[in-house]
From TrEMBL:
The UniProt record lists the keyword Endoplasmic reticulum: no
Name used for this protein in its record: Transcriptional regulator
Molecular function GO terms recorded: DNA-binding transcription factor activity; transcription cis-regulatory region binding
Organism annotation: Rhizobium hidalgonense
Domain HTH lacI-type: 20-74
Keywords of the record: DNA-binding, Transcription, Transcription regulation
SUPFAM superfamilies on file: lambda repressor-like DNA-binding domains (SSF47413), Periplasmic binding protein-like I (SSF53822)
Domain of life: Bacteria
TM region(s), chain numbering: none
Amino acid sequence: MNDSLVNDGKTPKKERMGFVSAEQVAQLAGVSRSAVSRTFTPGASVAPATREKVLRAAEELGYHVNDLARGVLANQSRLVGIVATRPEVGFRAHLAAALAKVLIRRGSIPILINTGRTEEELLAAQKMLIGHRAEAIIILSGSPPASFLELAQRNGHPLIVIGRSEPDADHVRAGNIEASRKAATAFYDSGRRRLAVIGSNSGTPAIVERENAFLSAAKSLGASVTAARGDDSDYEGGVTAGRALFSQRMKPDAVYCANYLIAFGLMDIVRQEARQRIPEDVAVIGFDDVPESSWLSYQLTTFRQDPQTMAQRAVALMERRLEDPDAPPASERVIPELVIRQSFRP
């Protein structure tokens, strides 16, 4: 038996296993290949009887238009690159998921590009970014290097940046300064005087902005304030910084954490190693109100960035840029809301 045939001896294996083609639809409908193309092209002219035959054949075969190929031929793309370093970690994971939902609802095709941390990973990500001819690129907070953004801009990609500042790009930013000042004031007004803030040595723009704003506000209030940092903006970073803070003779009575993962690490150290109570001995405020923040083990008072709101603002800026490529850079600012739970009640 010929290897190119399946068991019925009639259907070629490649046809059975591959995608249904427009040519197959044309054969079944008894029309030309161009009639199939016109049927699935918005605004194209095709006789009603021909359209009906084509649609009936397409439904019977399970045919779908190859949008990717059509975009290549038209030198257009519905791909939108979502670029992040470690997109699986923390708030970035929730934001990437929200962006994907908003983009799909719009009719775009999200493609997640993890820049990695090595030179080899970065080069591979850059090739992927340019090779797919994305319609636009959305850069998440974190640390994709400036070279990545410059490459996107040189190739004419509309560029939306979330959570950091870059020249000649549209921005969506959280109100980090407002939130951090509010945290310092809330601690001080509740009678806390030995304040601390935990950031990280990763030096991402949002983390640095929150740390600096809290330090400045606490000093202006006249409170004692210190800073501690872990290697990264994650749980282990909170553990490391927490141990450093609570090994000191003068221990803080209130700690502001630059994100929720840092806060979780700190809280476990406070309870398990320092043997202090939260919030009676140590009050804690975090940032990024993700579902885990309400877990019974933490009940974290925290500032909420709504990933859905930030995703919608970013896509709105993208659409504005696509409609008017020469418009001046625009910026959206989302002010976080303080969600009160058990780790601190003002």
